[in-house]
Amino acid sequence: MTHERDETQLTSGRRGAGNPPAAHSLAGQSSDAGLLVIALLSLVGLILLTVAVARSVVFPFDQPLLTLMHGWDGAPIIWNTISQGANIPLIVIGLAFVLWLFFTNRRREALVVVLMLVAVTAGSEGVKQLVGRPRPSGNGDGIPGVVYSYPSGHVLEVLTILGSIALRAWRSARRLALRGTLVALVALDVVLVAIARIALAEHYPTDVLAGFLGAIGALAVYALLTRPGGWANQTGADSEDVRGSGHEPQVTSPGSRSAADPAGRDAA
Predict the structure, then answer these.
(1) Model-level pTM?
(2) Residue 70: which residues within 8 A CB-CB, separation 6 or more?
(3) How far is Cα 135 from Cα 212, in angstroms, rounded to an integer?
(4) In this structure, are residues 131 and 112 in contact, taking their beta carbons and an 8 Å threshold?
(5) What's the rounded Cα separation, in Å, for the pair 173 and 178?
(6) How far apart are CA 243 and CA 179, in angstroms?
(7) Helix, strand, or coil here: 74?
(8) Packed helices 62-70 and 176-199: angle between N→C axes, nearest 10 degrees
(9) 3-class DSSP state for residue 168?
(10) What's the rounded Cα separation, in Å, for the pair 268 and 258?
(11) What is the pLDDT of residues 171-217, one digit of tens each?
């Protein structure tokens, strides 16, 4: 009876060992589908919002929120500092991220990031010219050629660049506390930039909303392409990307190895 019980436990263990790969596969498929849905919904939402703004549809929350947040402009130097942090410094951060990816042998991912940044920047300026919405302040942003309001390029780019860095860090093997702190800091910075752009009367809330939608869509595509098994997923030179692979390191005890592989036991 003891022998039968041991055989039953061994068989159950083998069944249990066979389930995780299937479960991980299903989870991976669900995750892929979720990312695709997020990308599509963000794109559709952005298109609908753009058409509405281009047709001068009045959003009931736009002016009240603009008035409220513009009233927070008691210390413009603070909001200007936050806003300008999403300009030249952000470009430097984005370039540094691309170079880091390239020199750690994640060259496909570096290419994805470059194409993503080109797409969001060119797309933002193209939509600005297409919609032609004047800024609430009535003037330009102080940047040559940047005249119109919709969408908020600052919010679009800060969320896209810092969001991709946060996603890369979250998928790493760093301590959870470090990864969580970085994600929280990125979220805080994005929110502050969004508030700053409205407080300075450079954007309407719907401009900021469009920036969020565009960035979320871009990040969903980035996450899809760089997911474990994705086209741009490559093991970096730092060999740190184990999180999100869907497989835990397997440690086999001598006893289980002997039971599972009698041939190996005999050879030993």
Answers:
(1) 0.77
(2) 136, 198, 199, 200, 201
(3) 18
(4) no
(5) 10
(6) 11
(7) coil
(8) 100
(9) helix
(10) 10
(11) 988 899 999 999 999 999 999 999 999 999 999 999 999 999 999 99
| SS3 label, residue 59 | coil
**Lowest-confidence segment of 47-56, 109-118, 195-204, 252-261 by average pLDDT:** 252-261
Nearest alpha-carbon partner for 80 in 205, 215, 195, 184: 195
DSSP string spanning 181-201?
A: HHHHHHHHHHHHHHHHHHHTT
Alpha-carbon distance of 236 to 191, in angstroms, equals 31
Is residue 81 within 8 Å of 197, Cβ to Cβ? no
Sequence ranges of the domains in the chain? 35-237
Q: What is the pLDDT of residues 26-59, one digit of tens each?
A: 666 778 889 999 999 999 999 999 999 999 999 9
Distance CA 155, CA 136 (A): 16
Could you list the beta-strand ranges (E) of 135-183. Answer: none
Q: What is the amino acid identity at position 167?
A: L
| H/E stretch holding 80 | helix 76-84
Specify the range with the lowest mean pLDDT, choosing from 32-36, 91-95, 122-126, 232-236: 232-236
Closest CA to 90 of 192, 153, 185, 162: 162
Residues in the chain: 268
**Amino acid type, 162:** L
Q: Which two three-digit tokens encode residue 82?
A: 């936050």
